[in-house]
TrEMBL record:
Annotated Gene Ontology cellular component terms: cytoplasm; small ribosomal subunit
Chain residue ranges for the region called Disordered: 154-182
Pfam families found in the cross-reference section: Ribosomal_S16
Protein name (database record): Small ribosomal subunit protein bS16
Amino acid composition bias (Low complexity), ranges on this chain: 162-182
Organism the protein comes from: Segatella buccae ATCC 33574
InterPro entries, alphabetized: Ribosomal_bS16 (IPR000307), Ribosomal_bS16_dom_sf (IPR023803)
Encoding gene, per UniProt annotation: rpsP
Length: 182
């Protein structure tokens, strides 16, 4: 039986979520599979992979052929590195402890790089939100200034109108008083 390690699509339309499965090469993409060894969510940054490392390593060592995408996922998780290191142990190049030390050092570097990417994304989002807030504050200040200017202009126009209505009323009273004195 030709065994493949491949992705089985799930999720909804426009939001793919995959299971990493072991299946016969002749089985349909979303059909019957032998074993589920993990999940892959490409919608997060960086993509989230939940993998049963030991089972993936077992299937790679017994000859299951991964698809291109799954091969990249397995390389990213270190399955192929561990296979390589185990081959070195079998040949006597180094012992099991040295292989595990090398793998742990690689995994630690990989995890720190992923954390740096996550932190950079969070920092970028915070900076974008701060810039957006500043821009909104500037727009609101400009609107508040326009409203204040408009209210001041309306108040000045209202004061002029009141002064204009009071001034003609006072002028006839003065004129009426002036002829009475004469």
């Amino acid at each position: 039986m030709a065994t493949k390690i491949r992705l089985q699509r799930g999720g909804r339309k426009g939001y793919a979520f995959y299971r990493i499965v072991i299946a016969d090469a002749r089985a349909p993409r979303d059909g019957k599979f032998t074993e589920k060894i993990g999940t892959y969510n490409p919608n997060t940054n960086p993509a989230t992979v939940d993998l049963n490392f030991d089972r993936a390593l077992y299937w790679v060592e017994v000859g299951a052929q991964p698809t291109d995408t799954v091969r990249n996922i397995l390389k990213g998780e270190g399955v192929y590195l561990m296979k390589h290191l185990r081959g070195g142990v079998k040949k006597g190049a180094f012992d099991e402890a040295a292989a595990q030390t090398k793998f742990d050092a690689w995994k630690q570097g990989k995890d720190s790089a992923n954390n740096a990417v996550r932190e950079a994304g969070v920092k970028a989002k915070k900076e974008a939100a701060a810039k957006e807030l500043e821009a909104e504050k500037k727009v609101n200040e400009a609107i508040a200034k326009k409203v204040a200017d408009k209210k001041a202009a309306e108040a000045a126009a209202k004061a002029e109108a009141e002064a204009a209505t009071e001034a003609p009323a006072e002028a006839p009273a003065e004129e009426a008083a002036a002829p009475a004195e004469a």
